[in-house]
Write a structure and sequence with these properties.
alpha+beta; 3 helices; eight-stranded mixed β-sheet; about 140 residues
Length: about 140
């Protein structure tokens, strides 16, 4: 039996065209507050994390037309983009995906927002859902 590598759900990401409108809607409708907001230049997105218990709803909006989120919005429209799972060791979790014959987007872990280490698993390997592996820095459970 394989050891459990996923420790909890870090976030559910929703691709939106207008991040400020989405923040206002989630705040006005559910009382959700922004816990963290960041421009992630490398990925061409702006993100806002709305805290829900020990996890987040992550709103992502493209900052340039060639970003993966811009392509997603163009092809599919607004909606669920990916699920982020926390892992103790991103590199080990990524290797487990590869050993199981899974297809990955990131061959090695890379820096993510909030000082995390991340890697993406291709949806073709995870039953149609883009999966993000998220390693939170030690001592910074967020």
């Amino acid at each position: 039996m394989t050891a459990l590598l996923l420790t909890e759900i870090d976030h559910v990401a929703i691709a939106v065209r207008d991040i400020d409108a989405a923040i206002a809607w989630y705040g006005g409708t559910f009382g959700a507050q922004v816990a963290h907001r960041e421009l992630v230049e490398r990925d061409g997105v702006e993100e806002a994390l709305l805290e829900v218990a020990e996890s987040y709803v992550q709103l992502v909006s493209p900052t340039r037309e060639d970003s993966p989120v811009a392509r997603f919005l163009s092809a599919r429209g607004e909606g669920l983009h990916h699920v982020g799972f926390r892992v103790a060791d991103c590199a080990a979790a990524l290797q487990a995906v590869k050993r199981a014959g899974g297809r990955v987007i990131d061959e090695v872990p890379r820096p993510g927002s909030r000082g995390t280490t991340i890697a993406f698993v291709h949806p073709a390997s995870s039953f149609g859902t883009l999966v993000e592996l998220v390693q939170v820095p030690a001592g910074r459970e967020m």
